[in-house]
Design a protein that fits this description.
By secondary structure, the protein is α+β, with helices and mostly antiparallel strands. The protein contains 3 helices and 6 strands. A 6-stranded mixed sheet has the order 2-1-6-5-4-3. A hairpin with a 2-residue loop joins β5 and β6. The N and C termini lie far apart (52 Å).
Length: 127
């Protein structure tokens, strides 16, 4: 079997990232788990998180009501490892306003499947 050595496009990886956000809105823990690597590491304002922590946020209900992703940038580190950075404007269920984060997500092609292995969320302060 020949490995795919073509790096993904920004749209390819942004589509995967949007699937993570869609899982947050739908409260779909199974879809979320499938997109994250077993060794996933999240670096959040609340601390470090592994894949079980990320998926565990679905225990009660969806964690997002709506979202918009913008200003996306893709850095190709290797054909199989890319870094997606973007702005996420989002609204939590029942919250009156929107919040903003800058997010960097590391995506890796493992056994010809793209998985999110690392994510860091940085709240954006209002100017």
């Amino acid at each position: 079997m020949t490995e795919n050595t073509t790096p993904p496009t920004l749209d390819d990886i942004l589509s995967l990232e949007q699937q993570v956000w869609a899982a947050l809105v739908a409260g779909n823990a199974q879809a979320d788990r499938a997109l994250l690597s077993p060794d996933f590491l999240g670096v959040y304002p609340t601390g470090f998180a592994n894949r079980d922590d990320h998926v565990g946020q679905f225990a009660d209900a969806p964690t997002m009501a709506d979202y918009k992703l913008s200003e996306a940038k893709l850095r190709v580190l290797t054909p199989d490892i890319v870094l997606l950075s973007y702005r996420a404007d989002y609204q939590r269920p029942g919250a009156p306003g929107w919040e903003v984060m800058l997010i960097s997500s590391l995506w890796e092609r493992r056994h010809n499947v793209w998985v999110n292995s690392f994510s860091q969320d940085t709240p954006l302060e209002a100017k």
